[in-house]
Amino acid sequence: MSNATDWGPLGAVRKQSPLLRAAADRYRETTPFENLTVGVSAPMTPHTGLFLDVLATGGAKVLATGEAGSTHAAVVEWLQERPRITPLAATEHSRHERRDARREVLAAEPDLIADDGANLLSLVHDEFPDVAEGLRGACEQTTGGITRLQAMDNQDVLACPVYDVNGTPMKQHFDNVHGTAESSLSAITSLTDTLLAGSVAVVAGYGHCGRGIARKLRALGARTVVTEVDPRKALEALADGHDVRPMAEAVTEAEFVITATGRYQVLRDEHVDALADGTVIASIGSAVEVDREALASHATDSDQPRPGTTRYRFPDGREVTLLTDGKVVNLTAPNSTGNPGEVMDTTFAMMIRGLVALADGVSLEPGLHPVPDDLDRAVAHEKLAAMAVEIDDIPDKQRAFHSEWAFHDSSAVE
Ligand code: NAI
């Protein structure tokens, strides 16, 4: 990697990323990706720029695509100057151009894929079956991508092994719960200039992201209402002290509706007439959760009072504001960079460890696989060490006691 003065738009992120800096130092020596091509799909943010640079430092030829709304032009420009990296993302890319860019990545016949949303993996199986057959493997970092890959695995169409990086404890408990909540709430407040304290905030979905958002909202003084389709998640939300209601009821008094499900049309036509006047709507899960067409078709008028906001006026005088056209708010709001650098450091460190294992030729059948727990633990230990936080070891006697399956005299432990 270059010296610190060359870091341009990645400078601040590099400081927040001790694990990626350490990976660069390690892999500069061992070059695990020598002679390999890595295809990447990821929001083209400064964090991703650093991730791509570490792959290239480890010897990879890297081709990377991203979505127009989350692409940072300065990062693309910086990457264009880097050896072995071809960024194929642009802020003005149309849907068509974005698909062409993904095709260009796959036409380079990558050996490995680092995916986000299964964008490259679904296309490679659809249009480039020979390239799919030749892949050593892939890593996927998002919940939405894993949902698609699970469907592919259920139909036995995956031609290579894929590590479910999203399913690791480090990703779910750190990135999804904390990173997404903080970056999403800060994007929402900076777009709207509205106070969360004392507001009624509806969170759709009480999975990892929704749970983090609801908890942080409440910590800020909001009155939280959760909507769910899973009865166990609904009970968990109640036990955590949130109100739980169906969406049709919740929207009637919502000041904020934040969707965190990754699912199609969670806020849809049937809810529009019930939305309270002044509601702010945002998605953090995916671009399909809010039915934007339904809002537009009920409205008599709309405008963009501030960048990243669309205000719809309905015939009865109500107004609601949709943020970033219903696209993922913490990645597409003006000046947003997605999750904070500290969590992207661990998520990308995990992606790199998975890619290194696949590059090394780890023996795995085609299909979706959990990341081995020792890799997840190694990342956690490394992060703690970087934070200078120590934890206890498990003493031999304790380990032996709990590995014993034969009958214990319980009086010994009473
Ligand atoms: P998860 O699977 O842990 O949680 C999703 C929850 O939504 C589940 O509890 C499910 O029962 C619930 N749900 C499904 N349909 C629903 C409906 N119609 N109404 C209400 N609840 C419903 O997933 P996780 O990890 O929380 O991710 C959620 C979404 O956020 C995914 O699309 C993921 O890709 C995305 N994500 C976004 C990030 C960002 O930075 N913006 C970062 C991490 C994930």
TrEMBL record:
A biological process (GO) of this protein is: one-carbon metabolic process
Name the record gives this protein:
Adenosylhomocysteinase
Lineage per the UniProt record: Archaea, Methanobacteriati, Methanobacteriota, Stenosarchaea group, Halobacteria
Cofactor annotation: NAD(+)
| Protein's UniProt keywords contain NAD | yes
Gene3D superfamilies in the cross-refs: Adenosylhomocysteinase-like, NAD(P)-binding Rossmann-like Domain
Q: Which residues form the S-adenosyl-L-homocysteine hydrolase NAD binding domain?
A: 176-336
Keyword NAD attributed? yes
Q: Which domain of life is it from?
A: Archaea
- Family assignment from sequence similarity: Belongs to the adenosylhomocysteinase family.
Taxonomic source organism = Halovenus rubra
Keywords (alphabetical) are: NAD, One-carbon metabolism
